[in-house]
Structure formats: C-alpha cells, structure tokens
Amino acid sequence: MSEHDDDQAYGTAAPTAPVTRADFERAVRNLHMSDLDLRDSLFQLAARVVTLTDELVRRLDGVEPQPAPPNTPAELRDGTIEDAVGQQIAHALGQIRAGDAGSGQRVSLDISGEDKYVAENAGPPCAELIATCAARCCQLSFALSTADLDEGVIRWDYGQPYLIRQRASDGYCVHNDPASHGCTVHAHRPRVCRRYDCRHDPRIWIDFERRIPAPSAEQRNPEHEPKGGAAFDLFERARLRAIAVHAETTAISESFADAAPQRGPKPPTRR
Question: Is 55 strand, coil or helix?
Fold first, then answer.
C-alpha cells in the first residue's frame, strides 16, 4: 500500500457532514426490506405451526381433512402434509402481503413489473378535464415501483413506504401544482398514473359522459368509499408480490453508496 501526503483523503467524511437524500433513501429502503423479510419468515413459521397442529389433531382424532380452498392449484389439492403446509402458507401470505396500497400493510410496492415508459395512457385526455375535475385523481394513494425509487424523481412517504407522497394541506400529490393542478413531473409520472382510467371511478365522476364530478375528498364520506377487493387469484397476487420484493432487494444490493471517487478530510494522525 502506498501512502499519500495530500491534505485530503478519499472516501472520508466529517461526522457532521450532511447525508444526501439518495443515501438516506437507500438506507431506509434496505431497512424496509429487512423488516419485510423478517415478517414473512414469521408468517411462514406461524403458518407451519398452525397447519402442522391441525394435521396432528386430524390424525389423532381420525377426522378427514377439509376440502381445499377455492382456486387452489390441482397439485396442492392432495398430497403430503408438506403440500398442505405449502398451501396454507401461500394463502396466508397472499392475503397478508398482496393487498392493495392503503390496506394497512407496512411496505407497499407496485407489483406489475411493467416499464412505465412503455405503458400506454389508458385514461381520458386529462389536460382537457382538469378545469372540471381539478385533478382529484392526484389525491388518491398508490404505491410506487422499484424503478420509481431508483430514478429518484417521484417522492414517496417515508412514514408509509412506498406510497406516493401527499400534502397535508389539501391531500394532493406533492408534485401537483396547487394553482393549476397540473403534474409538474409529468414526463416521469409513475406507471399507475399512466395506466389509470378515471371514467368509471365513482371517487372521480358521478357521470363522466355528462362531466359531473364526484364530491371532493373533503366532502366524501369515508364509509361510502369503494372497498378494494381481491382483483385476481391470491396465488397470483402472492407470486407478483414476491417478484416485486425480489426486484427491490436486487436493486438495493446491486447499487453503490458512492457514484465516483470523492475527496474528504484527512483522518487525524494516530498517536
């Protein structure tokens, strides 16, 4: 190892040096994934204990097993006790992990895997409607994708990872212009924004064809809000969720804290 007599060293930083937003978010994302991994392990352990206990009771009592739940794949309908365990785990995790954004889960991710820059706009011409609807879709909560997080343009709520960041003053997305209600980061908008079609959403329109908007967020009764249901098979939701989590974990592990060589203060002389 060669030594340098420069007044500065590479890679060092003063204890009081500010932390960049990118570095902070990278650390927080890693903590979220660690938390999610721990929770998944606990859920799997709990599912195993419950299932094995039920199977033990069934065998001791001589009771026939209950029919497989609806939508259970054929390969899991019959088989060993391990098959039954796998079936129970898949259903448990599908219900717990694959809920929609805002359902109370601690980490939310856009699980589609679709590249937002190739996603076609599925909704009506927003620019022509903002004067009528006041872009109230920008008050809806939704999850960002790993690609959004890596890009670093769209902000997310640190208290509710990784939901879109919203303002307390009016409930709008932080990127929404409070005067015009236009999107100020439109070129970088998330896939959900590109794919969203408001025309049949009762939170946005009473009658889209007649251009009658629904009551604003302040006027709506939360008890009358549409409830999110299982949009598709739980096994498929769990599979997509696992893919999204893997993509997020990979993105974090393959990233680097420092983009290029950077000088810092020289360490104090050892005595």
Answer: helix
